[in-house]
Amino acid sequence: MTAITAAVVRAKGGPWSLEALELDEPRDDEVLVRIKAVGICHTDLSIRDQYLPLRLPIVLGHEGAGVVERVGARVKALQPGDHVVLAPASCGACGNCQSGLQVYCEQFLPLNIGLRRPDGSATIRAAEGKVHGAFFGQSSFATFSLVHERCAIKVPRDVPLELLGPLGCGIQAGAGTILNALRPRAGATLAVFGAGSVGLSAVMAARLVGCTTIVAVDLQESRLQLARELGASHALDNASGNAVDEIRQLTAGRGVDYALEATALPTVIRQAFDCLATPGVCAVLGLARQGTEVSLDINTLGNGRTVRGVTEGESVARTFIPTLIELWRQGRFPFDRLIRQYDFADINQAAADMVSGATLKPVLRMP
Ligand SMILES: [Zn+2]
Ligand SMILES: [Zn+2]
Fold first, then answer.
1. What is the per-residue pLDDT across 325-354, written as a single tens digit (0 to 9) for each?
2. Exposed e or buried b per residue across 127-161, where buried means at least 16 C-beta atoms within 10 angstroms of its C-beta
3. What backbone torsions phi and psi does residue 201 show, to the nearest 5 degrees?
4. What is the Å distance from ligand 1's center to 251 Cα?
5. Exposed, middle or buried, 119 (CB in 10 Å: 0-12/13-18/19+)?
6. If you measure from the C-alpha of residue 214 to the centroid of ligand 1, how many angstroms do you get, rounded to a whole number?
7. 102 CA → ligand 2 middle, Å
8. How many CA atoms lie within 13 A of 20 on its CB side?
């Protein structure tokens, strides 16, 4: 057993409270990671607020980065002292995993929100009662995390670990949707709805691959300004609700080749679809309250248009996260500009700042 301090949500809406808990010893194929820093993602808030109703009390956190403390007997690729970023869990054996689509692992839900190991055992123990762990295979709002070796992505030691956790979810989701899923050609046109950390990661990636018209759409001027600095050719305030018309004007009436929707709001998804060229592809990234529906005019689906969901940027984390780090090192993917660091104890403030929009991507530093 390893004594840990973890942020626990005990009731719908929070708050998080820091509690002393115990973490199981690593099994043969597991790794114990001393968490250095962890990002907060909207999915953590959705579960805290029970829009996505997982069992409470729970240790959330799925953008962890840290240092390997101990490894199980059969772990070959990692050793104590290695720096790692934690990625979502996958089985490694199903057809999707075997073909590089582990983000669509057939066991994705049980492994990531089953809150137990595949054999049903719990990873976290509390002095009294039960606290659920193994969230996204990691529950990294904690000083230590226990993960399957597949989830621990080795990264270079000379890069600041405090920055890297969000590469495991939000940032790879935005960048990967461009670089892995949509793969726009140089000269393509793109609109990004929602200029938060996911949308702005997509803006940076779109600039990288040579998209020439990159339209960021949001309601907050500070985000739109940052979008311009990170590569958006145009930034539209959607307060008027006229984004579709404005995007058509910017593209000589044609619309955009690609739209990326990161708000999970039905009216905005509709706008993202309606601003497409023919043919065009709209990627939908966000998660909404269970049962949320979106409507489309069937006639606008003609002309070869596509709406598709994309999870975690369809990334193979083991190669994609090191790629993003190298692009950052070269100054071509400045994702650090999205991040504001907080002490772990200030997790509730960090989450509030994320909700208000004052902070795009909070990262909690462990003591
Ligand atoms: Zn996430
Ligand atoms: Zn699988």
1. 999 999 999 999 999 999 999 999 999 999
2. eeeebbbbbbbbbbbbbbbbbbbbbbbbbeeebeb
3. -65, -35
4. 32
5. exposed
6. 24
7. 6
8. 2
Residue 361 Cα, ligand 2 centroid: separation in angstroms? 29
Ligand nearest 286 Cα, by number? 1
Q: Tell me the one-letter amino acid at 119.
A: D
Q: Go through the domains of the chain in sequence order and give each one's CATH number.
A: 2-168+334-365 (3.90.180.10), 174-310 (3.40.50.720)
Structure tokens at 251: 């593209």
Ligand closest to Cα of 88 equals 1
CA distances from residue 294 to 18, 44, 289, 307 in whole angstroms, order as listed = 38, 23, 12, 11
Q: Strand 152-155 vs strand 83-86: parallel, antiparallel, or unpaired?
A: antiparallel
* Predicted model pTM: 0.96
Percent of the chain with pLDDT over 90: 96
* Arithmetic mean of pLDDT over the chain: 97
Among the bound ligands, the one closest to the CA of 196: 1
The share of the chain scoring above pLDDT 70, in percent, equals 100
Tens-place pLDDT, residues 307-328? 999 999 999 999 999 999 999 9
Query: What are the φ and ψ backbone dihedral angles of 113, each rounded to 5 degrees?
Result: -125, 15
Dmax (CA) of the chain: 65
Residue 320, classed as helix, strand or coil, is: helix
Span from the CA of 83 to the centroid of ligand 2 (angstroms): 25
CA–centroid distance, residue 86 to ligand 1 (Å): 11
Q: What is the pLDDT of residue 287?
A: 87
